[in-house]
Design goal:
The complex is a heterodimer. By secondary structure, chain A is mainly β. Chain A has no helices and 28 strands. Helices cover 0% and strands 49% of the residues of chain A. In chain A, β20 (214-219) and β21 (225-230) form a beta hairpin. The radius of gyration of chain A is 18 Å and the shape is globular. The two termini of chain A are 25 Å apart. In chain B, strands 6-7-5-10 form a four-stranded antiparallel sheet. Chain B has seven helices and ten strands. Classes of the chains: A mainly beta, B alpha+beta. At the A-B interface, β1, β4, β5, β25 and β28 of A face α3 and β4 of B.
Amino acid sequence: MRPILMKGHERPLTFLKYNRDGDLLFSCAKDHTPTVWFADNGERLGTYRGHNGAVWCCDVSRDSTRLITGSADQSAKLWDVQTGTPLFTFNFDSPARAVDFSVGDKLSVITTDPFMGLSSAIHVKRIAADPDDQIGESVLVLKGPQGRINRAVWGPLNRTIISAGEDAVVRIWDTETGKLLQENDKDVGHKKTITSLAKSTDASHFLTGSLDKSAKLWDSMSLTLIKTYVTERPVNAVAMSPLLNHVVLGGGQDASSVTTTDHRAGKFEAKFYDKILQEEIGGVKGHFGPINALAFNPDGKSFSSGGEDGYVRLHHFDSDYFKIPSI
Amino acid sequence: MLSYLNRSLYCNPSFPLAIIQNPQSTCTSSQISNAAMVMDTLGNAPAQKPRWGELEEEDDGSDYDFLLPPKQVIGPDEHGLKKVIEYKFNDEGNRVKITTTTRVRKLANARLSKRAVERRSWAKFGDAVHEDVGARLTMVSTEEIIFERPRAPGTKAEDSNASGDPLAQMSKGGAVLMVCRTCGKKGDHWTSKCPYKDLAQPSETFVENPNPSDLPATGASGATKGGAYVPPTMRAGAVRPTAGADMRRRNDENSVRVNNLSEDTREPDLLELFRPFGSVSRVYVAMDQKTGTSRGFGFVNFVRREDGERAIAKLNGYGYDNLILSVEWAAPRAN
């Protein structure tokens, strides 16, 4: 396949997200401008100007009208997707990190980092249909995890919030009461920072990727460990194919091995695994630096990866991808 | 036709006649007749020619585009190749034909929902507002990236033209079993690239001795881990001189030493460099065990001595990877 290379960001990529219809791709990077691209040919549509710090995460509403971004400038902003105008700014006392719209886009979860004595927290905000009615008050604030919370997402039917972070523990919180419902079993869980989390299309199971060079598949309701995928590299980004039973892991290189490997350009790869068999089925090379973001198009026929090198690579699969034998 | 021709020739006396010249034909002094031929064969003279008296007097005399044949577009053929043939006047006033060949390639089918189609026509915003065509933010990769299936160790790698990977290119040559002697792990790396290099016992002799002539000349590094190069006949367990060994010894007499190699030059690079001169039976790059880098020199054994001679003649002083190579016959070893 011929990937389309998009160099719109000067700094490493942090997150990639497709909209529900699969025609727009939103990219966030450590430069302060999230960008939106057309997902078929990679043409840039626009950029969202307004943040003053690295943008860590974004989410787009189902109708592709609203974009929410979390940034290290201690704010999360709500944008109009079409025009790029910032509609509202949620201010915090520490850098904002993960953001996620709920099913129905009426609520959003925003996590904040531990900062200057403040512990990390998960904020739930109500998103008003009319931006003029938007208020900045949190509906709910959850505290508890030590260390940074790298990802927080809504569980099935918005009943729960799932969070994962530096303490390598996956937690499930109740949305109504704010109580911690479950933590994952420590014996089978990750041993190092969980860097990434990806939900399945129906949110019944989710995948976490960690610096302990593995990714784990969990059940969203019971938090039981279903599968584990092992790699040789710390995992920075994970994605699940909405079409086939494939799981993609993207990662980096151990700091210790940097000097002893030779510099074959473009050798950082996104590794594909069979979701059920836990076996590696393929890899797509090309990035010049560790892969920090992965996203699948909702139609499952293309995916994109964002790297430390600032490039977004958009791949449309060839027909042989769909012919990989599986049970 | 002819009257038009006259107009063009006479309306501007300084008008270089070269313009009328058909680049393919040899047009000399008999301009008019040849030019007439040109116009006839081309048959492309525009129908509504401006009358010369009505033409704006342009000092540079450059507005004679009506003399040019129109642009031709040969649409995408079955390979997606599209040719656009344009004609222009260059600075000297000569007519030039510019052929642009592009490959139109369909990357994927995009089936857009109605809303998605609407979004396609949204105006650009933010930094994309002043996007000029030459921005080249979005480019199709020039390399074909394949979805690489994991290979069982030792099987031939598929043609991975994705990366200029010397190891991958090496295995292209034949089914090369990458066996590392140090860790015994197959298929991952050659002995010289073993991550556990320091654990290997440095030995003067080769314990296992595959015939050097059996080793594929594609640079299988039969080098010892520890110290000096020991010829196969001197190694432990070597078969005493037979015809085959004679050939081997002769090969070692055709040993060419290459100095001033760059740090990341390896056996396959030397093979690639010396192969044009003749059959190479063996390549070796001296490596520092502690750091894993090249010691800057290596040996290439040719089957025929004259190949080695030519190699020395040509490559001594040759610039390779930013360093000037020093290539000479290898001094006889201190046995």
